Amino acid sequence: MTDKDNAVFNTFQQAPNLRSNLADMLTARIESGDLKPGQRLPTEQAIMTATGVSRTIVREALATLRAKGLITTRQGLGAFVSNDPTPRSFSIIPNDLQSIDEVLRVLELRMGVECEAAGLAALRRTQEDIDRMQDRLDDLDKALEEGGYGAQEDYAFHRSILVATQNSYYGRLFDTFGNIMVPRQWARLDKMTAAERKRHAARMRREHHAIFTAIRDGEEAAARRAIRTHLSKSAARFEELRDATA
Amino acid sequence: MTDKDNAVFNTFQQAPNLRSNLADMLTARIESGDLKPGQRLPTEQAIMTATGVSRTIVREALATLRAKGLITTRQGLGAFVSNDPTPRSFSIIPNDLQSIDEVLRVLELRMGVECEAAGLAALRRTQEDIDRMQDRLDDLDKALEEGGYGAQEDYAFHRSILVATQNSYYGRLFDTFGNIMVPRQWARLDKMTAAERKRHAARMRREHHAIFTAIRDGEEAAARRAIRTHLSKSAARFEELRDATA
DNA sequence: GACTCCAAACTTGTCGTACAACTATGTAAC
DNA sequence: GTTACATAGTTGTACGACAAGTTTGGAGTC
């Protein structure tokens, strides 16, 4: 292994645990084409010395890649990048549900998808779409009034926006986000006082109504702005949560 | 297992190693409902004594399940069966009959994804990313000079942008677009004269270079604009194609 | 020279121990 | 009753050792 190869390994920043970091890095190297299909990976020893982690970690990271189908290993031979490392289907697997970083990355993806979708929805929504969005919004309001977090209802409302694009790909893609966006696991991390809960509910209502009215009235730019604001604030709140627990 | 049994399995090189066996066993227990969502798995020690394998094996098996999203682990607490062990996946299956409409819908989706990605890439790209994008751009230029359509190279360049976001979800999602975005099937519909081809090549080069320089120079807004323009014009061209063949 | 055989080196698979980091729980002190 | 802390239990990480599979190169034979 050359120095240049080593340099790639040294660039991982601190995060939840060593195994995930190493697995992410190796995954990135494969997906970026740095390691090509059929090519042999560095030996476990080489990865150990390059990254400074123990063989235990290296092996668990390789087990992760193997489970994802990115590599295959053969005893006495080594590990090899799979022939078709680019899967034709996309799915979000809740790797570390406690890892807020994961949620933030998904939120980044949602930002792109939903902003465009909101714009399209504002241009194309039918009366039926508007009614459906209104219903979901009512459900959400009701859930918040009853003191719940409304995560499920929030998700359903967002989905109704995607449906209104009249482009089924948007809705189908959004379905994959549900796996990680149901925040039951970290709900307990997020202990809000009654006052905070109330403020949170008011903010949610305000932001969602802004999105809804923009789409209903066919205001494309406003719809984009509104949903970007909403998702940005959600992300910011998750970041606070992470920093608070760190 | 007898030798005869092994003979049956020799066709696929699935090794009879302890890790796979244990992982399969645990997977079966989860999928059969023996271990219910949210329920805690036995401790690593318990699995060790119950199965007789070492902790190394247990941990690698658990790493496999975690990669598949079947369980989540938390230090000091234990491993738990995931709430939604059946991840939904997103894929694009090309439909030959209305393929151009199909492409237009996918382009709409790409619009959202890639605009956001270009913005993120402008903020986060590393020198390595810049080099990779430059290489892909050179490949594309070369393909166009040689009189090809450069569809493959175009796709590779776009992918390098997604990689530069440092958010692997973007790259993984983009891979699903490849199914329909390699336009071999309608290339023959698209007979350009030499002059048209030249104009097309010049346009492609101009638009791609605009995207590249914006990302390289860290200009977020310009990157978004450039890629939106590029995809809009691509979509317009596909629409012309559809109307011409209809 | 060409071939066979085998020993050595290398790599992954498995085992064992030890300690660090994190969590929950119960107990003592206030 | 509440807080602080000690403790036990669990996962995360490190290190060393040997087993099992694969390749390579050299010794020996024809």
UniProtKB/TrEMBL annotation, chains A, B:
Pfam families, per the entry: FCD, GntR
Chain ranges of the HTH gntR-type domain: 16-84
GO MF annotations, alphabetized: DNA binding; DNA-binding transcription factor activity
Domain of life from the UniProt record: Bacteria
Keyword DNA-binding among record annotations: yes
DNA-binding listed as a keyword: yes
Coiled coil: none
Signal sequence extent: none
Keywords for the protein's UniProt record, in alphabetical order: DNA-binding, Transcription, Transcription regulation
Protein's name according to its UniProt entry: FadR family transcriptional regulator
Native source organism of the sequence: Rhizobium sophorae
